[in-house]
Write a sequence for this structure.
């Protein structure tokens, strides 16, 4: 099915921006997906652009200049701001993965009363769960993507990339 054919099946859904904290794993898969499909990206990152694989300033800001650094080095600050600034959050994580970032994301989504779902990107139901969740939102939605770091769940980047590519019809290119 072509992108235009698929788009007619979901006429009221349009993710126009993907935000995340820029960390390895699910976050980075989402921003790389957005860039490869000309979807706007952004989000808050710790001061100096720190990430697991970009420890020295300017950090990941050198490769991803649309991220905005917080005034804090505490990753919880960026997590809270990204949940706040999104229409909804999807957390990509296997059921038994342990991650303080995932816990913070789910807590803040509850506190801020933002829609959130957790999807195991390797599960047989992942595509259907993501489609059901994204179908709840109208045009011009901003999706926050979160999940464990790649070091916590090896292979997460690839699994999330594949899942997002399977659901490309929900995303609207805005960068040309």
């Amino acid at each position: 099915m072509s992108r235009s054919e698929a788009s007619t099946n979901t006429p009221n859904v349009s993710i126009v921006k993907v935000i995340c904290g820029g960390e390895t794993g699910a976050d980075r898969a989402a921003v790389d997906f957005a860039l490869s499909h000309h979807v706007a990206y952004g989000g808050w990152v710790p001061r100096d652009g720190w990430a697991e694989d970009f420890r020295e300033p300017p950090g990941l800001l050198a490769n991803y200049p649309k991220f905005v650094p917080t005034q804090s080095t505490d990753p919880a600050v960026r997590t809270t701001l990204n949940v706040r600034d999104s229409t909804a959050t999807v957390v990509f994580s296997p059921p038994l993965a342990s991650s303080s970032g995932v816990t913070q994301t789910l807590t803040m989504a509850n506190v801020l009363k933002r829609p959130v779902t957790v999807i195991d990107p390797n599960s047989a139901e992942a595509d259907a769960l993501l489609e059901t969740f994204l179908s709840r939102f109208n045009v011009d939605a901003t999706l926050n993507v979160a999940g464990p770091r790649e070091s916590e769940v090896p292979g997460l980047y690839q699994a999330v990339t594949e899942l997002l590519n399977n659901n490309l019809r929900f995303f609207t290119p805005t960068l040309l």
